[in-house]
């Protein structure tokens, strides 16, 4: 899907250089993926402390597998 965006040249060029990308498209796609992943992580961290831990869970058992 082709989309035309007006993006600040200084911003895209800085991201292109920092990420060592080959194209502006790669830069934008990677930035969007990182943005989405970061937001999903923030959703998960908002759940911390909202669930009671399982008293019978043995975390060491999984290490031996």
In short:
This protein has 65 residues and is mainly alpha-helical. It is built from 2 helices and no strands.
Beta strands, count: 0
Give the helix level as a range of percent: 40-55%
Q: Largest sheet at a glance? A: none
The coarse silhouette is: elongated
- In N-to-C order, the SSE pattern is HH
Average pLDDT rating:
90
Strand content: under 5%
Structural class comes to mainly alpha
**Rg on CA atoms, Å:** 20 Å
How far apart are the termini?
Answer: 45 Å
Tell me the quaternary state. Answer: single chain
* Low-pLDDT segments, ≥5 res: none
Number of helices: 2
Task: Summarize this structure as a short list of keywords or feature phrases.
51% helix
